[in-house]
Structures are given as C-alpha cells and as structure tokens.
C-alpha cells in the first residue's frame, strides 16, 4: 500500500507463476494497482522494481534474465484476458509475490471463473493456435534439432494441457506426463547452462554436452528420451482433444473390425491366419493407420503383439537423411508401401517387410544383417510359411541394395547387373524389393529420395528384369547428334537449366587429365553445391551431368558464364587451388560439428574393365575437387564418376583405369586409395 492509500501488488504469471523458472527463463510479472496511483507514481515504482534486473544485478551472473511485465488494474486485466488468449492462459498460474494480496486474490478468482465459464467458446481458438505453432515448429519427437518449448509435444503443449485441465471441461490425465515434463524441463535447464544463453532449440553440436551434463550414456540416449517424452505429451494432447470433440461422432472405418479382433485377447503362437490377415489389413490402410498405431503403441498394445518393437521404440536417427525415429520411419514406410501394393504379387510380404525393414537398428552391428536375423522369429510367430519367411528375410537384408547400387555403380557395366542378379532369385522378389526401396526412400524424405534417384533405381530394375528374362534391352545411343557434334569438334559446352529448385548442368568437353577436379573446382567457386553427378568418357570427349543447388546469395549461373569460367580454368588462367583454399579457410572459421572421418573403399572386382573406388565423407567445400586432384596425381584415368549427396553426407564412386585402359593392379589400387585418404584428411 502506498502512503496515499493506493494499493499495488506484484504477481508472477506463466512459468514464473508455476515456480518453473529455469536458468535462462524470462520473468513474467503482473503489476496490479487499484487505479488510484498516478501514471508517474506507477512509472517510478516500475523503474525501482525492474532496474536491478535490467542492469544484471538479478538472476544468473552468466545469463541475464529478460522481463516481460504488464501494469493493469483488475478490471483491465479481466478485459484483456477476454480478448487475448495468451493473457488468459497466463493468469491460470497467477501467484502472489508481495504487496496488496487482495488485488491478486480478486484477479485470480475472477479469471478462474471466466476461464471455466468461457472455455467452450475458446476451444476453436486454442486449436488454431496449436495448429499454427505445429506448422511452424514441427514435431519435437522427430526433429534433429528440436525446439524443446514450442515444438509439438514440447513444454508449451504441457502448459496448454494444464490450462485445459483447469477449465474442468474434460478430465486431463496430467499424471501421465509428469516424467515427460521433468525430462524436458531438465534438458532445457542443462541447455541454458551449457550454452550460456536463454534458448530452447537443442542444436546438434550441443546434444553431446547436454547428454554428459545430465548423465546420459550418449546423445542418442538423450534424444531418445526427448522423443519418448514428446510422444507422451502429444498422445495426451490428442487424447484430450478427442474428449473435447466427443460430440462429433467418429466415422466408421474399414479398420474397425480387424482392430477389434486383434485387441480381443492374447494372440496365439503362431498367429491364426485370420489374425495375420487382420494385421496386414491394418498396416495396409495407408495414412489412416498412423494415428491408430501411435495410440496402440502408447497403450502398450504393440509391444504385447511384437516384443521386438520395444528395442526401436523412439530410437533416434541423428542424421540429415531421416526425419523420424526408427519406429516412426518404419510405420511411414508401411504407409508408402500401401500405395504400391498393386505393383507386386504379394502385397502382404511387401507390407511386413516395410514395417520391419529397420528392425535391426540400435546396435553397432550392420542393421541389415542383424535385421535379417531378428525378423525370422518374428514372422514365424505370425504364422508365415518357410518360403515366405525366407523372402521377408531377403527383403530386410537387402532393402538398401537397389538404391545403393543405382546411385554408386555404373549401370552400363555388366558387373553391376551381375552383382544384383546374384542376390535376387526371381522377378517376384525383384518387384517386391523395388517397391520396398521406393517406400523406404519416400518415407525418409527429400534428403534421401528424389526423382533423379527414383529414375536410377527404375533403370537398374529394368536392366535386371531384362537379364532375368533373357531379353536384350534396346540400347540407347550414348550421345545425341548434337552432343556428338560438339564432342567431335572438340568444343566445350555448358548447358544450365533450372530443375527442382536448383539447376541441372550438362558439360561436354574434350577429355583430359584433371578435368573432373577442374570442373568441380569451378562449380565450387561459382558457389554451386553439387547434389549429384554422373560423368563418363566417350572417346576423346567427356560428358558430365551435374545436379546442383545454388547459394541464394550468389548470382544465377548462366551457360555462357560457366563455359567461360571452365575454359579459363582449363587454360590455366584461374588458380583453382589457391582460390578454393581461401574459401575452405573461410569455412574453417565457422563452428565445427564433429563427424566421423572420411572412408575410402576399393572394389577390385566390381567392374569388368575398371577399378572402383568409393569415398564416403561428410559433405564439405571442394570435396570433389580434392578427390579429382588426388586421382590425377596418380597418373590414372577417370573413366566415370557417380556423385551422390544425401543430406550432409557425400558418397562418390569413381571408376578408374590405367592410362591405356584396363583395371588397376592391387598395388596400384592401394596407391590411389592412399592418395585419396591423404587428400581428405
């Protein structure tokens, strides 16, 4: 109370009101007054209260707090809450700090009554705010670098659930997310401390430090706990929303009967034919299956049917290729496989293989080999016969075969087709594996699948099918008439065309030692990021097809400018090595994220007339330039190259011959491999 009899009170709202103030959290304050104080008196009070916080004398010495405050009378507070949902929800956690407690009690009583009375009218607004936020931030359980507070399933959702519970409109089982709230809160607190900043997004390079600080075995364990906690929160939100919409009758679906039978009792061992068919019907329902699967998983039904599922549940995949945890990725693969069942003779085998193709993940062992072993007892329990079990095992073991071969091997080389034929027994299995490859890639996302990759896989399947059928494929001409004319005249040509948000670039040039590194170097200096490439020698000419992503701040590439730059580099007018090193030095000043060292693998028998080298590395500036230079120094010819960039990882396959032709000896191959390894250090 002021000396003139006016009343003022200080109260906490939001997270501060709940007593959940972490190291870097904002202070959410409400200054209440009875309207009798003058504006200058209120301003003087606010300054006296907040200056110690603003100048850093309050809060952590390392992380100064921000203050979010408002100054209102009880009536102004009520009127604002009626118009502003954020204010109304913040008042749910109103807590008296000091001053005239009666003002705080008045606001708390009125705001609680208003919230309960008007909640039904605010349901649609709450839903819209949730949907807008989810669209902006994504799902916490499946993000590589998630926002712990704002993403779907995060701490903000827990606040919303608490607000819904306080309305008394529907029961909300908040006890189900007590652990999730504790886990996410502890991780956010550790993130603030480790980063020295008030932030909510857990970046990739910070995850190891936070994991150590909280006693996790590694960052994978940390992110697995994040994923499971987020799923628990999201499941409660979905369940609560079903109660809010209980007056909307659920539409009958074709899944009702098979699900009812599956949930009716303990499953026999082996499953009955009806049970197996019900399960296949369920997982073949497409996108309608996803939310139901999540509900069954959260209620423990999936683990009771399939104990093996527990090992991959919420298992994170901390790479840029996958957008989901292992279990959710397999569910999404089944969804995509459901759209392909008309392409195969045994849709049941396709769906089962899709749902369990990554079941072997979660250990240091090769997941395909481990998956082949784990899937056998699982599908035996389902009642499949021995022939079908063998087919499912093959699909799980070789689910990466077609995509890996198509993107890393020369499809014109007979040895490439022979390597696939040796593993696939018949056309029926080939069509199953093709559909599984497509579903797996589509489920992983744009970083792992594209029209270009789909076309390569389809081309490989076409060639293998022809070989199995004993037919001869019509050979496409290696060069068009226009390409041949340029090649024969010894002319350099670069043709740049827009494609899928980037550019496709065709380059025809007289072949010469070091051509690959020169072109790759020019593309690097032009600030074009190579996503994929295929290069091949045709007589005395080389034809190169590049798919690149541009730097948004760089000039748009043109055919004329690129041709001129490549010609200048070929003529020695550009010191590529020096210019590229300057760019690399600039990149080296940025914060580095630890990645495994590059690997070089040699395949002496993967081609009938060349030696194949495969380089796996984190994508980095001028990677292909370094590879080309290293090979050129060994005085060998590059017959063809296949470049694939998957997210942040590059896989470059190089077919190398001696100058006069023919594969390298083991000794020469080792020399080239060592040169590559040295160049990539």
Automatic annotation (TrEMBL):
<dbReference type="InterPro" id="IPR013546">
    <property type="entry name" value="PII_UdlTrfase/GS_AdlTrfase"/>
</dbReference>
<dbReference type="InterPro" id="IPR045865">
    <property type="entry name" value="ACT-like_dom_sf"/>
</dbReference>
<dbReference type="InterPro" id="IPR002912">
    <property type="entry name" value="ACT_dom"/>
</dbReference>
<keyword id="KW-0378">Hydrolase</keyword>
<dbReference type="Pfam" id="PF01966">
    <property type="entry name" value="HD"/>
</dbReference>
<keyword id="KW-0808">Transferase</keyword>
<dbReference type="InterPro" id="IPR002934">
    <property type="entry name" value="Polymerase_NTP_transf_dom"/>
</dbReference>
<feature type="domain" description="HD">
    <location>
        <begin position="326"/>
        <end position="430"/>
    </location>
</feature>
<protein>
    <submittedName>
        <fullName>Unannotated protein</fullName>
    </submittedName>
</protein>
<dbReference type="Pfam" id="PF08335">
    <property type="entry name" value="GlnD_UR_UTase"/>
</dbReference>
<keyword id="KW-0511">Multifunctional enzyme</keyword>
<feature type="domain" description="ACT">
    <location>
        <begin position="504"/>
        <end position="585"/>
    </location>
</feature>
<dbReference type="GO" id="GO:0016787">
    <property type="term" value="F:hydrolase activity"/>
</dbReference>
<keyword id="KW-0460">Magnesium</keyword>
<dbReference type="InterPro" id="IPR010043">
    <property type="entry name" value="UTase/UR"/>
</dbReference>
<dbReference type="GO" id="GO:0008773">
    <property type="term" value="F:[protein-PII] uridylyltransferase activity"/>
</dbReference>
<dbReference type="Pfam" id="PF01909">
    <property type="entry name" value="NTP_transf_2"/>
</dbReference>
<dbReference type="InterPro" id="IPR043519">
    <property type="entry name" value="NT_sf"/>
</dbReference>
<feature type="domain" description="ACT">
    <location>
        <begin position="612"/>
        <end position="681"/>
    </location>
</feature>
<keyword id="KW-0548">Nucleotidyltransferase</keyword>
<dbReference type="InterPro" id="IPR003607">
    <property type="entry name" value="HD/PDEase_dom"/>
</dbReference>
<keyword id="KW-0677">Repeat</keyword>
<dbReference type="InterPro" id="IPR006674">
    <property type="entry name" value="HD_domain"/>
</dbReference>
